[in-house]
Amino acid sequence: MLATVLRTAILMVAMISGCLQAGTLDDIRAMEAGKTGRSAPAMDALALPRRDTTSGNDRAVKDASPVWYPLSDGRKVNVKDWKVVLFMQSTCQYCRKFAPVLKAFSQQTGLEVFPVSLDGKGDAEFPDVLPATPDVMVEYFQSGLPVATPTTFLTNVNTMETWPLLQGAAEAGEFRNRLNNVLRMVLDRQAGTPLSSQIQGKE
User: Fold this and answer.
1) Is 11 exposed, middle or buried (0-12, 13-18, 19+ CB in 10 A)?
2) What is the pLDDT of residue 153?
3) Model-level pTM greater than 0.85?
4) Considering only CA atoms, which of 39, 169, 171, 161 is closest in space to residue 105?
5) Bond preceding residue 150 cis, omega within 30 of 0
6) How confident is residue 58, by pLDDT bands cut at 50, 70 and 90?
7) Rg of the chain over CA atoms, in angstroms?
8) Pairwise pLDDT comparison (2 vs 110), residue with the higher score
9) CB distance 103 to 113 below 8 Å
10) Boundaries of every domain in the chain
């Protein structure tokens, strides 16, 4: 109990520290290795809604049709299986710089962004946000990643497994490269296991 209180207090102090720019793929690999794959209850909105097979509603089938995103090695992933979780705050200058880039990327690719705000407020690009509760903060920053904004994570909406993407503002090309590298790392880890619907083989 005391450890949980201390962890929450440390996270709250870290949140006050404000904006930060950092991150490398090696850091992401190290941080991902420490993740447990558990999902915070408050993040259940990330999960895909279950299809109602009794109603005969065809819209659920159409919504489930894949939208393929090509990787640099020829493989493709279904962006509907993934969401970018963005930790932000309305007072962060780096968030204001990065938000239009991420919004445009999302609109171009169909990869949805799930914004979580440290101060409970949105911005022009992401006005509807989930407030960052202590359980959400612990879940996403449990592996030792500094609490800073903007920070992005990649979450599989089917399994709720999560991988850090980057911290700080980035241009579209840098974000695309990081996303490509993380998705390739994820797919490489799945090699040797039956491939799910999220992967389309090389063509």
Assistant:
1) middle
2) 96
3) no
4) 171
5) yes
6) very low
7) 17
8) 110
9) yes
10) 13-43+77-200
